[in-house]
Amino acid sequence: MEMELFAQKVRKGVHKMLKEEAETTVQKVCKNNGVVLYGLTILKAGQNASPTIYLEIFLEMYDEGVPFSTIIDKILKTYEKGMPKSKIDMDFFRDYDKIKDKIAFKLINARKNAGLLEQIPHIIFLDLAICFYYAFYHPDMGEGTILIYNSHLDLWDKDTNDMLKLAKVNTPRIFKAELKSMESVIEELLLDTDIDSGWEPKERIISPLVPMQILSNKKRTFGAACILYPNLLKKISNSFSKNFYVLPSSVHEVILLADSGLENPRKLQEMVQDINETQVEPEEILSDHIYYYDQRSENLKRLF
């Protein structure tokens, strides 16, 4: 079934199942890299906020033969689970002094987000764009982000440079950088997902001679932006005692590879492109290009 038809079928099904009056709406939500998802919202009387339930996964279930009544039941359970227990006062976002300490930056692909960049404050960096968000936390809803638009700057009477000054200080403080070996990251993933397989944590699955490091933040949220942290790449280069390649893994992390003189940059870029096509969610792709940090000039540049 086409997504548009399914979305309207779901909206009507949810509306019919609710015992009380509620406004059910479906809208297209533009995500990173131009990805468009269909989001369902349910707003009951007296509520001022509701989780957005994305319907793509439910269409897959429906196409695989899951009964429509079961899908509606799952959607309503998802709504109840995600609904905040109390009203969320968003008026605080109008007060710049209340939000300025949690303004952070992230990196996105400039070309794939050209339309979005017309609406948000940003700074072009290589083939990427630095943009800004508010690091949101609510006891009921947990952690989240609110993207900052040009309209917000008009409201606060601020500009892009103001955002950058704050984000340079706030982002490293809120999202502390973390550098780990590729080996340790894979070991952590296996421990999280395959505990009962009999795999032993001390077993070597990647040779320690493979000098790949994963750079992200401790929350693994928009961690590719760590390459913007003041003096961080310089410190890493000093620890390597070499120049290094920066391979964009996703918007959440990058891979660092010390330049031993044996690497083939073209092959590295082909590897990144292949992984983006086959293993990374479309909205999480950062770039198909690779970068190079030169220790002497203290400069990060795009290759090719």
Summarize the SSE layout with pairings:
Blueprint: H1 3-17, E1 22-30, E2 36-44, E3 53-54, H2 56-63, H3 68-82, H4 96-99, E4 103-109, H5 114-117, E5 122-125, E6 128-138, E7 142-147, H6 150-156, H7 160-174, E8 177-181, H8 182-193, E9 212-217, H9 232-240, E10 244-250, E11 253-258, H10 265-278, E12 291-294, E13 299-302
Antiparallel strand pairs: 1-2, 2-3, 4-6, 5-6, 6-7, 8-9, 9-11, 10-11, 10-12, 12-13
Helix pairs in contact: 1-3
Structure notes:
With 304 residues, this protein is an alpha+beta fold. The protein has three domains: 80 residues; 84 residues, no CATH class; 126 residues, no CATH class. 34% of the residues lie in helices and 26% in strands. It contains ten helices and 13 strands. Strands 8-9-11-10-12-13 form a six-stranded antiparallel β-sheet, sandwiched between helices. Strand 12 and strand 13 form a beta hairpin. Helix 1 packs across helix 3. The chain is globular. About 6% of the residues have low confidence.
